Amino acid sequence: MPVRARLTAVYGSLFFLTAGALVVINYFAVNKILYRRFTVRLPGAPLPDLPAGVPTGKAVLIQQFSKSELSSGDPGDTVFIRSVSDEVERFRQLVMDSMLQWSLLSTLLIGLFGLAVGWLVAKRALAPLHTVTETARTLSGSTLHERIALDGPRDEIRDLADTFDSMLERLDSAFDSQRRFVANASHELRTPLAINRALLQVSFADPDLPEQLRSVGAELLAANARQERLIDGLLLLAQTERELTTRESADLEDLAGAVVAAAPGRPPVRAHLAAAPVTGDPVLLERMIGNLVDNAAKYNDERGEVHIRSGGDGATSFVTVENTGPVVAPDQVAVLFEPFRRLGGDRTGSARGAGLGLSIVRAVATAHGGTAEARPRPGGGLVVTVRLPRAPAGSPALATPHGRALDPGPRLP
To answer: Are 182 and 234 within 8 A, CB to CB?
Structure first.
């Protein structure tokens, strides 16, 4: 049971138990009072011995007669006394039954009232916890700057919220330090790599250079290019993990069309695009789609097919990239989104890239409030889908010079 329901049950049970205890005590107390011995002065009978201070001119005690007392007296008096006793007994029983019925009804009403009060009190008491829960649910690596900042008295819930805020502050500092380190290190490494590339290109431009040194130079330039791609990927990853500072209207259809137009053409990318309006950073979104297409082209096989689709369904817009390629085990799909991880245990040092493509895709999607998912394609290959919140109706989309591909085209067999 939820906490609110448990608290309501406790409050209601206390009301029921308290009311029930009062009913039992009241029942026995009234029963004891009603069944006390009392007498009444019969017409013509002498007054009994009365305690001192009791007036004699008024009706005094009516005595509860026993059977032996009734049988030993005058027959006329006996009949009269027995009639009075029967009426008194019926009156007593009526009082006890009525009291019991009304007491039980009152107990039920008080218990129901206690449940209603408990439900409202529990809601009010747990409202700060709902605030803490909602804040924690919306937190991500880009929103750690948010705080609960709970108002109210200094109680246990306020202490919990303040402790949670302190933890968020420490996490925000740690994340920010990590991002600054990655960004600064990447910037510092780009300069020497650019210098190395320039020196290699100048040195190996000499036509008299031996052929063996030229082959070494080509390998050095390729290694240098891989390092530059790695640095660029780290910079982009650090950028996407920060809070977005640029939010514009864009359309995944147009951004995907720009990526397809700039693709080298081998393997050919078949576009089946439809309108998919979103709001965000167009540069990052285009880079995200470019990474999807690059990955689909690099990790392909002799079939060499790449399909890209865009569209919308309900409250989301999506872009999907599907390719042919080696068979991917379902348990390896999640690993592909980790930095520096590739299929089959291939890590850094590969000519295919730095292993940051899908990591950047997921980081960009998360920064825009969306998701990135992948699933193995039957027959080999991968299907990667990015879903982003759909832009509100009527918001102008970011225009690009590329037109729309109207032909939806067939799906990969």
So the answer is: yes
Q: Mind listing the pLDDT tens digit for each residue in 145-168?
A: 777 777 777 777 788 888 888 888
Whether the predicted pLDDT of 386 surpasses 90: yes
Query: At a CB cut-off of 8 Å and minimum separation 6, what does 144 contact?
Result: 168, 171, 172, 175
Residue appearing with tokens 């320039």: 198
How many Cβ atoms are within 10 Å of 109's Cβ, its own excluded? 11
In 10 A of CB 356, how many CB atoms?
A: 22
Q: Report whether pLDDT(247) > 50.
A: yes
The answer to whether 292 touches 361, Cβ cutoff 8 Å, is yes
Between the alpha carbon of residue 260 and those of residues 146, 211, 275, 312, 319, the distances in Å are 38, 38, 16, 19, 13
Q: Which domains does the chain have, with CATH numbers?
A: 3-134 (no CATH), 156-240 (1.10.287), 248-389 (3.30.565.10)
Q: What is the pLDDT of residues 94-128, one digit of tens each?
A: 888 888 888 888 888 888 888 888 888 888 878 87
Rounded to an integer, what distance in angstroms lies between the CA atom of residue 11 and that of residue 259? 63
* Alpha helices for 204-355 (secondary structure H): 211-240, 252-262, 282-298
Distance of CA 84 to the CA centre of its chain: 74
**64 pLDDT above the threshold of 60:** no
Distance of CA 304 to the CA centre of its chain: 41
The encoded tokens of residue 227 equal 């390092």
Q: What Cα–Cα distance (Å) separates residue 313 from each residue in 274, 310, 408?
A: 11, 10, 16
At residue 395 the predicted structure's pLDDT band, cuts being 50, 70 and 90, is low
pLDDT digit string, tens, across residues 65-79: 444 444 455 555 566
Place of tokens 């309108």: 275
Average pLDDT, the chain: 76
What is the biggest distance separating any 2 CA atoms in the chain, rounded to whole angstroms?
156
| Gap between the Cα atoms of 117 and 42, Å rounded | 56
Residue 13 CA to its chain's centroid (Å): 32
